[in-house]
């Protein structure tokens, strides 16, 4: 399924865009077309946001080259939904989709609150998650916002329905590509596999086939970090991930012996997140 049409061609001014690090935005793949003197808006607006109680990252992406400034939000948390709504308003964005990488067990999604506060916003989650949502996604689907898009990659193993969202491929898409890995791949680690139909062998295969095959410079943005990391790359994780650099048998042993307590909010979060935006906010 293609959730909306994929990109039209950019105009000549935009093709001369160059990177602007201060805005946190990314430029274009081909350096030859980044050398023009014309200053133009880089297309992608990107914000990494943090919720400290569950150490969750939420990501806001928008196409500012498009007149509507369409945006998507990945993995919002209920506790920070007000902040996210305010940011969307302040930046003059039109939020189209609230995308969840999976049914989280440690926090309640902000999807319900966002749908209430911003009419017209649609919730999205994988079909394999079994959760309720406006849009059910399958591997290979593209979610478009303006001329930019996210591609859906199926990365089960932490939960049955985990997906990774990867920014598009092509000259008009952000470079390097960015992968929003949810809990499948964390920086130097990975999501646990001891509940919600978790499966270490599946997770190992998912990460190796769907994430580690992306170009080495691809940026990794996880749903959580507990040590203060914010971003990594495929190349870095291929070298330094403490679990996924092992062979599959050793990986399975590591995962069997993590000894982590269950998330404190699990009994509230899982049933609530299975409704993914259709629950009455608590
Ligand atoms: N202490 C937290 C939960 C911490 C936790 O279990 N995190 C999960 C992701 S959220 S389900 C995980 O997979 N961690 C992997 C790891 O190696 O830490 C709480 O009580 O909420």
What does this structure look like?
- A hairpin with a 6-residue loop joins strand 2 (56-63) and strand 3 (70-74).
- The protein has helices at 12-15, 81-90, 111-117, 200-211, 234-240, 248-256, 266-273, and strands at residues 44-51, 56-63, 70-74, 94-99, 122-126, 135-137, 142-145, 148-154, 163-167, 178-182, 185-186, 189-190, 219-222, 232-233.
- The strands form three sheets. It has a six-stranded mixed sheet with strand order 1-2-3-4-5-6, with helices on one face. A six-stranded mixed sheet has the order 7-8-9-10-13-14. The protein has a two-stranded antiparallel ribbon with strand order 11-12.
- The radius of gyration is 18 Å and the shape is globular.
- It is of the alpha/beta class and 282 residues long.
- The protein is built from seven helices and 14 strands.
- Helices cover 20% and strands 23% of the residues.
- The chain has one domain: Ribonuclease Z/Hydroxyacylglutathione hydrolase-like (Metallo-beta-lactamase, Chain A, 4-Layer Sandwich), CATH 3.60.15.
- The structure holds the ligand N[C@@H](CCC(=O)N[C@@H](CSS)C(=O)NCC(=O)O)C(=O)O.
- The ligand N[C@@H](CCC(=O)N[C@@H](CSS)C(=O)NCC(=O)O)C(=O)O is lined by residues 54, 105-106, 183, 189, 191-192, 224, 226, 260, 263-265.
